[in-house]
Amino acid sequence: MPESPRWLIKVGREEEGRYILGRLRGEGGADEGRAEAEFQDIRNIVELERKTSKQQTYFAMFTGWGSGKLHTGRRVHLVVWLQILQEWIGIAGITIYGPTIFTIAGISAEQRQWVSGLNDITYMIATLLCVFTLDKIGRRWTLYWGSVGQGICMFAAGGLARATQNKVNAGEDPSGVGGAATFFVFLFTAIFGATWLTVPWLYPAEIFPLEVRARGNAWGVVGWSVGNGWTVLLLPTMFSALNEKSLYVFGAVNAATIVIVWALYPETNQRTLEEMNLVFASDSIWNWEAERNYALLKEQNPELVQAAQRGNSIVTDPESGAPVRSGSLVPRNMSLDAKTFEKSGSDEFETEKPPVKHN
Q1: Which of 35, 184, 274, 293 could form a disulfide with 157 if both were Cys (CB 3.0 to 4.6 A apart)?
Q2: Cα radius of gyration rounded to whole Å, the chain
Q3: Per-residue confidence at 332, pLDDT binned at 50, 70, 90?
């Protein structure tokens, strides 16, 4: 397993990095020049990291200080709150209250262990579904159908848990209704495993610029820690006061997440890190504005977007958001702000010219 070319170049082992890129990208035929172009892009990024190291601290990322059109602060808050929402859509509640539902359903202590283990196995198997659906329907639609399914399960499990308890209080057999409540606990766990378990952990790796990608993932872990700690501390008191009605709260949170994801979270599926920089170039927090701005950039700066789609690293000035690249076509006056783009005719692009040889 070779070292990462980006790491090798970052620590000064450039020739090794260039060699590995050549093996990965190919060096002949249609692939000729790809490795060298990517090598130059990575060197530019490493240089940018050194110049902007003070703007890459965790505090600077959280506040967005100095990030300009990259809007790093917005991305940090998106990944933090996505992880917090992951805890509040109900998985922590099911973990705590599930055994109670099993108990009032008439399941013995010995059987509860077996049922809980079976629920965990269902959870594990359901995660495999995401492997086949995530790239086909995208991140946003994965969260959408997860929220819908989980919300239905929460409301159904809460209502059936109350009906089961009523039957127990009346001295009637609760097994039928209790079995239905148990089914919705299983169904919720399976849907969560196929949707919301995966995307909040994947999303940070897909939206941050390369130079702060590792720290962006760390912010995602911070969000998970906050959400997990918050629910673990609060839910015992919440269930003590509300009992099964707590599940209705989780159902309502699931409904709210549909609107939140739709309004604030851009789609990352089939987009490179460089394309996500263009998506987040909008000054608006709303997703529809970001997509509209991206569409304008795509129309006005086709070379920029095409380079991003090929995966070429577009190094941007942290203050202006303007691309800084060497050895490639760069439109003059190009900006990541679509409103400031100025088209200047046939001499719009400047290219790196080869040296002139004198005989």
Answers
A1: 184
A2: 26
A3: very low
Quote the CA–CA distance of 274 and 268 in Å, as a whole number.
11
Q: Is the pLDDT of residue 88 over 90?
A: yes
Distance between CA atoms of 235 and 245, rounded to whole angstroms? Answer: 12
Q: How many Cα atoms are found within 13 Å in the side-chain-facing hemisphere of 144?
A: 12
Q: CB 58: neighbour CB atoms within 10 A?
A: 13
- State the pLDDT confidence band at 57, using cuts at 50, 70 and 90: confident
Distance CA 315, CA 245 (A): 51
For the beta carbon of residue 99, count every other beta carbon within 10 angstroms.
17
Cβ atoms 210, 273 nearer than 8 A: yes
CA-to-CA dists, residue 141 to 15, 36, 63, 147, 193, angstroms: 43, 37, 29, 10, 15
291 or 117: which carries more pLDDT confidence?
A: 291
Nearby residues of 354 by Cβ (< 8 Å), 6 or more positions away: none
How many angstroms separate the Cα of 151 from the Cα of each of 101, 238, 250, 253, 348?
Answer: 17, 18, 7, 8, 53
Q: Provide the 3-class DSSP secondary structure of residue 94.
A: helix
The 3-state secondary structure of 12-76 reads: CCHHHHHHHHHHHHCCCHHHCCHHHHHHHHHHHHHHHHHHCHHHHCHHHHHHCCCCHHHCHHHHH
- CA distance linking residue 39 with residue 57, whole number of Å: 26
Question: What confidence tier does 150 reach under pLDDT thresholds 50, 70, 90?
Answer: very high
